[in-house]
Design a protein that fits this description.
- This protein is an all-alpha fold.
- The chain has a domain at 34-108: 434 Repressor (Amino-terminal Domain), CATH 1.10.260.40.
- The protein is built from nine helices and no strands.
- Helix 4 crosses helix 5, helix 6 (63-70) packs across helix 7 (74-81) and helix 6 packs across helix 8.
């Protein structure tokens, strides 16, 4: 039992002697904007498309399931995700509710 306690103490000392994680984080003012980091994906999917993909992934639902929940076709949802079809206010509200996000994000 004493050996385990000594090992834990040693581990704790090693961990506390390391640099705090806050020192490893880039200050907000110096951080690279996400749009710059995701430039190639934005070109491929559009900004709105990435929002859809991320929100759907977070909710763990497919395009087909989201379309079904919102009463729209999967084809139309795909076009919206790919920036080939505009999103109306009513549709944005339905999508936002299903994805648990603000409808304003979908109307930007």
């Amino acid at each position: 039992m004493i050996k385990k306690i000594d090992k834990l103490k040693k581990l704790l000392e090693e961990e506390t002697s390391k640099k705090p994680w806050q020192d490893l984080v880039t200050p907000w003012e110096e951080a690279t904007p996400w749009e710059e980091l995701a430039k190639s994906r934005i070109q491929r999917y559009t900004r709105l498309g990435l929002l859809f993909l991320g929100a759907r992934h977070r909710e763990g639902i497919s395009q087909k399931e989201l379309a079904s929940r919102c009463g729209i076709s999967q084809e139309n949802l795909s076009k919206m995700e790919n920036g080939k079809r505009p999103i109306g206010k009513q549709t944005a509200k339905k999508l936002a509710k299903a994805l648990r996000i603000s409808s304003r994000l979908l109307l930007l």
